[in-house]
């Protein structure tokens, strides 16, 4: 056996350190990006609705709290795209975005039912 062959054998059995390589994050970038862009939009607007109901913000744009709340979807959407692009696979990105949407819109539905029933008026 040559010395070069032994070094190759040692490298095969050596565990990799750290996280994935940058090339691994670029795999399936199209499906990850589509998951973040398409499913991140309803998630960001769901967060906007949740915060609007929790903070009892008026829908009129002449108030400062309503104007500040309008910045939330953009920040959340960029975060969704970042999370989707850094996930391990396109399927995992899709799953994360779907679960996030179900949670956010489930909370919105619950808050809206409480608001309509009058239970949220005591907050």
UniProtKB/TrEMBL annotation:
<keyword id="KW-0812">Transmembrane</keyword>
<keyword id="KW-1133">Transmembrane helix</keyword>
<protein>
    <submittedName>
        <fullName>Uncharacterized protein</fullName>
    </submittedName>
</protein>
<feature type="transmembrane region" description="Helical">
    <location>
        <begin position="98"/>
        <end position="121"/>
    </location>
</feature>
<feature type="transmembrane region" description="Helical">
    <location>
        <begin position="34"/>
        <end position="55"/>
    </location>
</feature>
<feature type="transmembrane region" description="Helical">
    <location>
        <begin position="67"/>
        <end position="86"/>
    </location>
</feature>
<keyword id="KW-0472">Membrane</keyword>
